[in-house]
TrEMBL record:
Residues 227-296 form the CusB-like beta-barrel domain. It comes from the Bacteria. GO terms for cellular component: efflux pump complex. Gene3D superfamilies: 2.40.30.170, 2.40.50.100, Helix hairpin bin. It comes from Hanstruepera neustonica. One of its GO terms (molecular function) is efflux transmembrane transporter activity. InterPro entries: Beta-barrel_RND_2, MdtA-like_BSH. This is Efflux transporter periplasmic adaptor subunit.
């Protein structure tokens, strides 16, 4: 009996110790961890509105303002001249570019001129008898007629009788036939319409040239044009005569041009407007790729910031009492990397560089350059 009582007392003591220990453990309060406030350092700038010069950037390749594609209108053998017909060859205005052998055709022209002379000479006796008042002018025409020169213009017909008489003898039709052949004979020689340089040569001396065949290209290297396509939003900003700064892709050389023409219609497919920039420089070559900066207009009371700082719905971040906030702005011009804004009050502190994960209400502190401050 005694052993049973002792066993029961031991069990009760163990159970009581367990509950006391659990109560003591549960009664201990764990201290809550305090979250560290993270304050990001940001680069800021203070707004000061000013007049912003809006510059439209565009690019394109140069094309000679005056260029001629040379085509043959007659057939014959290409005769060699004083200069080789090769790319890079320079020619002065009026100098022969191509001479085509016209000996055979020249003979037929001379034959037609001779027939005209003979036709007029044959009617001179009738003119002396029937129209004595006209004899002197027609005799003077024959005296000035030279087979080795261009056929002179026929004397002026002053009466219906004279007109019927001359026309009935076929003089007028023969005259215009000769003039037509003389015009065609002139096409055997192609001369330079202006001083320039040959950029393409598709034939060589001694080769057979066919009618309609392309012979080459000839340009004036003193003046070039660059065609650029700009958004239709800038159509009202473009003005003929505006100065344009041009530079090569390496930005090692710059040139000054001007807007020479602006297309009056907008491309329906791309919704762009075409402008032409004229530029002259001895270092320029056709086909060179240049970048252009067109001074469009001056925008007063505006600022210019990086496009990376723009938020959706035309907003930007500002700093107020070390807290990020957003304000509405009015963008008036977008370039490739910048945006011009209005409606930003002077003295407003804005972000100068984007902040990853930024949000309205975020704690920040402006960066202070201690080196410059000292």
């Amino acid at each position: 009996m005694r052993n049973i009582i002792l066993t029961i007392i031991g069990i009760l003591l163990i159970a009581g110790s367990f509950f006391v220990a659990k109560k003591l453990i549960d009664s201990k309060t764990k201290p809550k961890p305090v979250a560290n406030k993270i304050i990001k350092t940001v680069f800021t700038d203070t707004v000061k509105n000013s007049t912003i010069n809006i510059v439209i950037q565009a690019n394109g390749s140069l094309v000679a303002k005056r260029r001629v594609e040379l085509y043959a209108e007659v057939q014959g053998i290409f005769k060699s001249g004083s200069k080789l017909f090769k790319p890079g060859q320079e020619y002065s205005k009026g100098e022969a570019l191509i001479r085509i052998d016209a000996a055979e055709y020249y003979a037929s022209v001379q034959s037609a001129k001779s027939n005209l002379y003979n036709s007029i000479a044959a009617i001179m006796p009738d003119i002396r008898l029937d129209f004595p008042e006209m004899h002197q002018k027609w005799q003077g025409y024959l005296n000035t007629f030279d087979l080795n020169k261009t056929t002179p213009k026929l004397p002026e017909i002053t009466s219906d009788k004279e007109n019927y008489f001359i026309t009935g003898r076929g003089i007028i039709s023969n005259y215009y036939d000769v003039k037509n052949q003389e015009q065609r004979l002139a096409k055997y020689n192609i001369t330079a319409p202006f001083s320039g340089i040959l950029t393409e040569a598709l034939v060589t001396e001694g080769s057979l040239i066919r009618s309609g065949q392309k012979l080459g290209e000839f340009i004036d290297p003193s003046v070039y044009e660059m065609e650029v396509a700009l958004s239709k939003a800038y159509a009202s900003l473009l003005k003929v005569g505006e100065s344009v700064t041009l530079s090569n892709l390496e930005h090692t050389e710059s040139y000054t041009g001007k807007v020479s023409r602006v297309n009056g219609s907008i491309d329906a497919t791309t919704q762009t407007i075409t402008a032409f920039i004229e530029v002259s420089n001895d270092n320029l070559k056709e086909g060179m790729y240049l970048e252009a900066n067109l001074d469009a207009k001056d925008e007063p009371n505006a600022i210019e910031i990086s496009r990376n700082l723009m938020l959706d719905n035309d907003q930007i971040f500002v700093v107020r009492d070390s807290i990020l906030d957003v304000i509405d702005v009015k963008p008036v011009f977008y370039s490739e990397s910048k945006v011009v804004l209005k409606n930003v009050p002077d003295g407003t502190v804005i972000l100068d560089k984007p902040v990853v994960g930024a949000y309205s209400g975020m704690l920040v502190q402006p960066f202070v350059d201690t080196k410059n401050k000292q």
